[in-house]
Amino acid sequence: MGDMIYMAWRYLVYNRIKTAILILSIALIAFLPIGLNVLVSQSSESLTVRAMSTPLVIGEKGSPLELTLNSLYFESNTPPEISYSQVQRVNETNLANAIPLYNRFRSKEFPIVGTSIDYLDFRNLKLAQGRKMALLGECILGGAVAESLGLSVGDSIISTPESAFDLAGIYPLKMQIVGVLEYSGTPDDRAIFTDLKTTWIISGLAHGHQDLAKPEAATHVREKENGNIIANASVVNYNEITDENRDSFHFHGDPSTFPITAVIALPHDTKSGTLLQGKYLADTERMQIIRPSQVVDDLLETILTIQQYILAGAALTGGSTIMTAILVFVLSLRLRHSEIETMHRIGVPNHRVIALLGTEIAVVLISGIVLAAILTLLLARYGNFLIHNLLF
Amino acid sequence: MIRISNLQFAYPNSSFNLGIEDLHINKGEAVAVIGPSGTGKTTLLNLIAGVIKPQSGEILTDNSALSSMSDKQRRDFRIRNIGMIFQEFELLEYLNVHDNILLPYRMSSALTLEKDVHQRVEKLVKRTGIADKLKHPIRHLSQGERQRVAFCRAVLSDPPLLLADEPTGNLDPENTDLVLDILFEHVRSVGATLVTVTHERSYLERFDRILDFADFRKARAHG
Fold it and tell me: Among partner residues A14, A345, A347, which is closest to B108 by beta-carbon distance?
């Protein structure tokens, strides 16, 4: 047997390009359906677990998928903003507890999620270091964000301006990191959490600046009328909230009209959930209430349908590849007719010639299957990363 | 060593037929088979080697009737007792010189690849002047060197019978002499029988006997 393997190995190495193509083809035939299955299973699990743990989400009428992806996975486009009064509306029903979400801004590629402390408890997020955010301008980082940016408690992180060319737009805000979350294997790992009010400061609805009533700020005053001081354009807003300037931050307007992107509703029981959903059914209703598990089920149904098409395509491709491999083998037999004839003439038994050819095929097949197995293991290991980049 | 009597052979669907009433080649004899193309010289070698079986008649090779053996028995007999050398060398491109010489040992359980076989390979390649080419791929060898590798493969198991089909057909005069010297030196030193098919008449005096197929062959082309 050792001689057969050696001879087969010499032949395959001599014809290394043909061998490599055959091994790669077989590996792909095996890997495509298995790999796709692994990918779909992982994405299904990843999507479903998160969706199942989020009972109801409220947002402005529009795409339920966009609202789900943004609210649960902090991905997709920012859905239309709704007012903070929607949080109060849910709470006033006494059917559910409401957790606001404002996911519009980013720091580099990581989303800044404005929410309440309740969100951390709801998602059962544990701190690896530091404490929860308590004051304006404080934030906590998901485990992957801290690792990726090399940040820890005591450092600071700056929000990324939405547009570098919008001079009148939103300025970056430097936030203090007061906590880092343990890895949870969820999208929370890749998010920066801060208080809702801090995100409103980023959006420009609140700001802090020099006290214009003080004499040294006189150059920033445009006019004083009935006790109101109106600043001119030279007044500089603070872009970092510190202990010294925290009190100077103030909101203009009614906070109930301030924007959020979604409300997570946690009904007290099943009946409360059903009743709450009923309150958003009117034709004139501008809000939608969605059950994320239902949205994800619909999405997975679409993915599974696509998977079926891809598998059918892979089966066809695989079939034609196998046919091509057989053709290559038959043609190589014809090319090797003289070699086989020589073996026959010098007295090599038929079964040894067949064993040699069989060993060559077996080595190619086994190598292809091993390569497919390695690819599948790699996919299983890094599938989540791939899903993250493919889906969102 | 070889006795052929009342032999009749024809290829299926062919007008060719070969008939030999009586042919005897003695042990240790070097015989050259000459004659025009298509008269069945190579067929005769294949019949002696048991590669093909006659329709009738008997061939005794080293007192063994190959035509009454099974295919496996004939192959085992051939690989143990007959060394074959071909005009086109018939070496395997994907093996180096060493592995080509060892081919019969690697591919047949009738021969056992023991330590002394490797020592014999070393002696053979030294004697034939290709010792420095042992690990070379076949494509890097000259025609003469290739035929010397084929010779080493044929004689490695010390077969009592050597069958050579136009062994110098692809060689220049210098390499022809070299290969023939090696071939005859081996045959004479071990007392092997040699049957060589050739078109080349310039070296016929080296052989003990010359069989001219045009003289004794009864084959006639029909149609």
Answer: A347
* Rounded CA separation A263/A255 (Å): 15
- With a cut of 50, which residues of chain A have pLDDT below it? none
Reference B12, options B45, B47, B58, B55; nearest CA is B55
* H, E, C per residue of A260-311: ECEEEEEECCHHHHHHHHHCCCCCCCCEEEECHHHHHHHHHHHHHHHHHHHH
Identify the residue whose tokens are 């100077």.
A248
Map residue B53 onto helix, strand or coil: coil
Query: B125-131: which pairs have CB atoms within 8 A and are 24 or more residues apart?
Result: B125/B97, B125/B101, B125/B152, B127/B182, B127/B185, B128/B152, B128/B182, B129/B178, B130/B97
> DSSP 3-state assignment of B90?
coil
Nearest residue in A to B76, CA atom: A347
- CATH, domain B2-222, list 3.40.50.2300, 2.40.30.10, 3.20.20.240, 3.40.50.300: 3.40.50.300
Asked if A138 contacts A145 with a C-beta cutoff of 8 angstroms, the reply is no
Domain boundaries, chain B: 2-222
- pLDDT recorded at residue A84: 94
CA distance A87 to A263: 6
B104, A6: Cβ pair inside 8 Å? no
* C-alpha distance across the termini of chain B, in Å: 36
In this structure, what token pair is assigned to residue A241? 């909230």
Distance of CA B16 to the CA centre of its chain: 23
Nearest-angstrom CA–CA distance, A309 and A159: 42
Contact criterion met (CB < 8 Å) for A11 and B46: no
**Nearest one of A65, A41, A49 to A187, comparing CA atoms:** A49
Question: CA A196, CA A251: separation in Å to the nearest integer?
Answer: 13
pLDDT tens per residue across span A98-117:
999 999 999 988 999 999 99
CA of A75 to nearest chain B CA: how many angstroms apart? 56
3-state helix, strand, coil in chain A (%, to 5): 55, 20, 25
The pLDDT value recorded for residue A208 is 72
Please give the single-letter amino acid code of residue A333: L
Q: Coil, strand, or helix at residue A236?
A: coil
Show Cβ contacts of residue A352 under 8 Å, excluding neighbours closer than 6 positions: A4, A343, B107, B108, B109
Model pLDDT, residue B216: 59
Q: Rounded CA gap, A371 and A29, in Å?
A: 11
Give the one of A10, A15, A352 whose C-beta lies nearest to B108's C-beta.
Answer: A352
Q: How many residues does chain A have?
A: 392
pLDDT means over runs of 10, chain B (223 residues): 88 85 91 88 90 90 85 90 89 94 90 88 89 92 90 91 89 84 88 91 90 65 34
Do the interacting molecules here have an ipTM over 0.90? no
Q: Which pLDDT score is estimated for B223?
A: 30
Q: What is the DSSP string of B117-157?
A: HHHHHHHHHHHHT-GGGTTSBGGGS-HHHHHHHHHHHHHTT
